[in-house]
Amino acid sequence: MSSPVYDIIIVGTGPAGLGAAFHLAEQTPSLSILMIDREKICSGGLLNDCKQNYTYPIGFAAGNWTREEAERLLPQVEKWLQPAVKEKQNLDIYRRRAERLGVTLLDVRQAHVGTDRSRVLIQRLLDELRRRGVQFMLQKEVTDVFDDTEGPGVVIADTGKVRARKVIVAPGRKGFSFLQQVMERMGITYIDNVVDVGIRVETSVGNYPIVNDYYDPKFLFPDAVRTFCTNSGHARVVLERYQGFSLVNGHALSEEQTGNNLANFALLKTIGLKNPVRSGQQMAVFLARLANEIGGGKPLMQRVGDFRMGKRSTAETFNEDLYDFPPSCPVTAGDLGLAVPAKIMRHLWAAMKKLDTIVPGVLHPSTIMYYPEIKMYANKPAFLDSHFRVSANVYMVGDGAGTSRGITGAWASGIRSAEGILSEQQDQY
Predict the structure, then answer these.
(1) Of 395, 396, 397, 401, which is closest to residue 378 (Cα–Cα)?
(2) Separation of alpha carbons 64 and 307, rounded Å
(3) What's the pLDDT tens digit per position in 208-235?
(4) DSSP state at residue 4
(5) Which is the CATH superfamily of the domain at 6-86+111-191+379-427?
(6) pLDDT tens-digit profile of 75-96?
(7) Considering the chain, what is the average pLDDT of its residues?
(8) Residue 258 carries which DSSP code?
């Protein structure tokens, strides 16, 4: 039997991997830990915008978490991320308006770092782990994970097999396809039937003034629609590039930067598919590729004023005097009705109308709706225990594995996998 090179290999340096690494290194400093990432610095939500939510259930995947379990671990997440929690005001006003419409406004403890400051945070975290003896292989891609008769390990491009006693796989949302391939090769049962499909809404702060009182307001609407990832201050809509298509997302810079008077947020509908549908991910990919095809290789955008009148937006309509700000992400002006499935669009638009009653102004004709914003993090492996173990020696955590939906939940899921490894180690002695 081959001797393992490391005690623990962690695939991914995002919040789930970091959560596991910090807990392992703190509780058992003698462990040899290797973290591997194909990027030079961890990507995803920790790098881009770095918005953190410290209130259950935000960021915690249903079915994997109880309130008690989340609230037990959130202080540990806060210990390492050291958030500057934002203040809120006037929530009762918005909450009363929402309740009259059957809408819920959640009160969430939040912090925001900003895309321009996130690298400083990440570097502090990585430096602290290096000080504790954790090793890194950056810009190295893991192509496979295994757990055979000789134990677990990973296959690294241009390097080959590296073995460890335990492997934690935490590649984030963009690792969704990679995780599926690994699970299929390892014979791990999983469910992939849930996907979030929606739009990114961009408007002026004057048309969405709630952001002055509550940085990232969390509204839950009927028909499984919710607001997600609100940005203001110096906010912009950005592209996320995948193989063969692009999605939209939102970022904001820190408060150190001059504001641009824009706000954006996602409006997402959660779709639970039933048999015989094979894959929510594949549905999402088809929808994204359709939108990009209609948009000439780019996502689509449409002004609310044009949508209400039943006509497509054109580049010219984005320059008339009624439309008082240019798009921060100038993709293809068009007609969302050609790309968004009708049922999804009906539910999104119904939520928009309710939101305009709660926060009057958001349906100003100048407001832009970008499509597609799709969250493909719906893998649900058949976990063997509460520590997210999928085989004798392999754990899968984070957004890509469906254990979380955000930075704090991902970090907490990494802690739970680390607790499982340490408890097994104690049982052996």
Answers:
(1) 401
(2) 39
(3) 999 999 999 999 999 999 999 999 999 9
(4) P
(5) FAD/NAD(P)-binding domain (3.50.50.60)
(6) 999 999 999 999 999 999 999 9
(7) 92
(8) P
How far apart CA 285 and CA 290 sit, in angstroms, is 8
Q: How far is CA 348 from CA 71, 190, 200, 362, 372, in A?
A: 32, 29, 11, 13, 12
Rg (CA), the chain: 22
Integer Cα distance of 369 and 37 in angstroms: 34
DSSP letter for each residue of 65-116 = --HHHHHHHHHHHHHHH---BPP---HHHHHHHHHHTT-EEE---EEE--TT
CA-closest candidate to residue 195, choices 339, 379, 408, 352: 379
E strand or H helix at 180: helix 176-186
Which 8-state DSSP code applies to residue 28?
-
Question: How far, in Å, CA of 90 to CA of 134, rounded?
Answer: 45
Question: Parallel, antiparallel, or unpaired: how do β-strands 235-242 and 245-252 relate?
Answer: antiparallel
Return the pLDDT at 107: 96
Q: How many residues does the chain have?
A: 429
Location of structure tokens 């830990």: 33
C-alpha distances out from residue 221 to 343, 349, 354, 396, Å = 15, 11, 8, 31
CB 365 within 8 A of CB 194: no
Cα–Cα distance for residue pair 64/153, rounded to 1 Å:
26
User: How many CB atoms sit inside 10 A of residue 108's CB?
Assistant: 20
> CB–CB of 388/356 below 8 Å?
no
DSSP H or E segment with residue 395: strand 394-396
What residue spans define the domains of the chain?
Answer: 6-86+111-191+379-427, 194-375
% of the chain at pLDDT higher than 70: 96
What are the structure tokens assigned to 52, written together? 């953190």
Q: Where does the pLDDT of residue 429 fall: very low under 50, low under 70, confident under 90, or very high at 90 and above?
A: very low
